[in-house]
Amino acid sequence: MTAAVHTRWPGILEAYRRFLPITDHTPPLSLCEGNTPLVAAPGLSREIGASVWLKLEGCNPTGSFKDRGMVLAVAKALEEGSQTVICASTGNTSASAAAYAARAGMRAVILIPDGYVALGKLAQARMYGAEILAVRGNFDEALALVREVAQRLPVTVVNSINPYRLEGQQTAAFEVCDALGDAPDMVCIPVGNAGNISAWWRGFVRYHEAGKIRRTPRMFGFEAEGAAAIVRGEPIAKPETFATAIRIGNPASWTLAVEAVESSGGAMDAVTDDEIAEAYLRVAREGVFCEPASAASVAGLLKLARSGRVPPGATVVCVLTGNGLKDPDSAIRLGQATPRVVDCNLAAVETALAGGDA
Ligand code: AN7
Q1: Residue 356 has pLDDT above 90, yes or no
Q2: Is the pTM of this model over 0.85?
Q3: Cross-strand partners of 40
């Protein structure tokens, strides 16, 4: 069979229209988000004795999964006559909101925790023309402030408390099922504000109801240990992790996420910063560069495997939520991504290579 390699992908609103709350009045917004690669991870598969797949959400137009929910949230805001979108963000939501607002001709206002957003994300949001306020507080405080602002000003909140965000994010689960021909056995996802794991689960349930898949997967969510509110069972006032994307202490979709792991037969667990860093480097050795928060999914899978909780031969999907290029500082710090400098001649190169690890 020959694959149709030149079919144009229309973006998720058109591709999954019948599963989304789209009307004749919804503007056809798209940056061709979705259709992200599902890449096999042979090294991890061998190590774990399972069939491990990586869903590269960092291949979305702004480099993270947020584009799936944002395209729908911004399209609906436009449909409803709104002119301004607002969000609090650890970085990726802001980049995505800024891009889709630019595309839709809307104003984007963004509140970020000062000093805790990766460089690439900040640069993106500014390039797309967003108005950025770095607040002296963490993400949870910024989100509370956004809710207050929205009570007073004519703005549309595009954080995942906007129901269209989760609706759009379901499409990642649809794609995995379309690619594998059925649901996987297990899905591992990093958890910050807990929207994504809730959306994926809803996607699997919806596809199951529609008769598209025969089973639903067990959902495993992983919080960073210093921000593991759901695992600990209480909000964390001062969340800490180097994976700044998931540095969130009071997840907005807490209840939905607990429902997702419980009704799917999965679990919510925490991974340490060391485990995240190890997985971040490990995934790069498979040829895939994700951001630190994304590696929490693989760190979690490795933790499950170590405790014998991955059945032999199971099909496992790890969701790599964001692109490694978002956070060059972490790569330089952990991956020793600073090059060794040598003289520009053959002898210098030969000497360097003889010593190994150039
Ligand atoms: C790379 O951008 O919350 O559990 O404001 O950027 O759905 O929150 C980002 C979250 C995982 C967690 N991986 O997803 C934001 C923001 C990456 C992320 C998460 C985020 P949720």
Answers
A1: no
A2: yes
A3: 53
